[in-house]
Write a structure and sequence with these properties.
By secondary structure, the protein is an alpha/beta fold. The chain folds into 2 domains: 1-33; 71-146 and 210-356, 3-Layer(aba) Sandwich (Rossmann fold). The chain has 8 helices and 8 strands. It has a 6-stranded mixed sheet, sandwiched between helices. Strands 2-3 form a two-stranded antiparallel sheet.
């Protein structure tokens, strides 16, 4: 009887232990979870982005936002030696010249841009037709340019577990999940690097081909601009189309800038809407015979950037030049100018190229 009771108790006890153990495992499983759920001491993170390790045949590159902008430039200049005095105009080559028409002749082909226009007037005339020296157009389209590829950002390292786990189901589950995630992250890093390499290769190929083609196109465009401008300025110097004598009145001799602004305004009013940017370049001593547009000429410089070169100023901040700047700045602004910048002849061509572009 005792032996039977012992066997029954042992059988019942074993069943109890098994059931209790199963219960404990279920509890641990509920607390520990799976690698896709939160586990005590198991670091979690946002899923990593996916990437394709092979080059996409339709790979495209982004384009700079302002690339392809066109520009209308109007140049007003006084050709007389008195305008430059004992100073000079410095070219990009460091050459210092004292002839204003030669300076204009040199810089114009460097300033005209694809799809752009340059109109040039000589000061000293009261009529548009006589003052007009040349109008040059660019008939080529700007080539496509692309931003350089960017290397994908390295994935953020996983944080260390905040709980020290003891050997068991949770420990094993966490380690397995960490291993799985590490393998997946390594694959993403590899694919990202491969995608970047594809972008670099594509960029190098496209830009190389574009640069080769553009070099020939741009060179031909500059050569044509130089020839056309040389012809136009020669004809103007010979008096072709000029119907009046320059500097024939005190206003035109000692001033004349307001007439030039009026001629420029006619061009801007007709053409500025067709371009992304409008720019006025003035090469003159900016002397004034009578102030504040005494002849009430039509002037509208709305949205125009003005770059005034005072070649006779040894120092652009010397009192005599500052006085002229203080007079003209509010005048230009009154007629709607967007920006007004003054230079003397030092680094004149470089300043223009930096501000306007080549």
């Amino acid at each position: 009887m005792e032996t039977l009771q012992t066997r029954v108790w042992n059988s019942t006890g074993i069943k109890f232990i098994l059931v209790f153990s199963l219960f404990i495992l279920l509890v641990l499983g509920a607390c520990g979870g799976t690698p896709s759920q939160q586990t005590p001491g198991y670091a979690t993170w946002t899923s990593s982005p996916s990437a394709t390790p092979t080059c996409d045949p339709n790979l495209s590159l982004s384009t700079p936002s302002e690339w392809g902008a066109t520009q209308l430039i109007v140049i007003l200049y006084d050709p007389r030696p008195r305008t430059i005095g004992d100073q000079y105009l410095e070219l990009e080559t460091k050459e210092k010249i004292r002839d204003i028409p030669s300076f204009v002749d040199t810089i114009v082909p460097h300033l005209i841009q694809p799809g752009g226009q340059v109109s040039i007037f000589q000061l000293g005339y009261s009529s548009y037709d006589s003052a007009r020296v040349a109008r040059l157009y660019s008939y080529i389209s700007v080539p496509q340019l692309y931003n350089t590829p960017s290397l994908p950002q390295t994935l953020t390292p996983l944080p260390s577990p905040v709980v020290t786990l003891t050997p068991g189901f949770g420990y094993v589950a966490t380690k397995q999940a960490e291993t799985k995630q590490a393998i997946g992250r390594a694959a993403v890093e590899t694919a990202n690097a491969a995608g970047y390499a594809c972008g670099v290769s594509y960029w190098n190929t496209v830009v190389k081909l574009t640069a080769t083609a553009w070099n020939g196109t741009a060179t031909a465009e500059i050569n044509d601009a130089e020839k056309n401008f040389a012809t136009e300025i020669t004809n103007h110097d010979k008096g072709l189309g000029v119907i009046e004598t320059p500097f024939r009145t005190d206003e035109l001799y000692y001033g004349g800038v307001y007439y030039g602004l009026s001629f420029a305004s006619i061009v801007f009013q007709a053409e500025c809407k067709n371009y992304s940017k409008c720019t006025l370049i003035i090469i003159d001593d900016l002397q004034v015979y009578r102030e504040y547009n005494p002849d009430n000429l039509f002037i509208n410089l709305s949205g125009v950037d003005i770059y005034a070169i005072l070649p006779n100023c040894r120092d652009i901040d010397q009192p005599s030049c500052m006085k002229l700047r203080e007079y003209w700045s509010p005048e230009f602004k009154k007629y709607g100018a967007e920006k007004v910048v003054y230079w003397n002849g030092v680094r004149a061509e470089v300043n223009l190229i930096d501000a306007i572009g080549r």
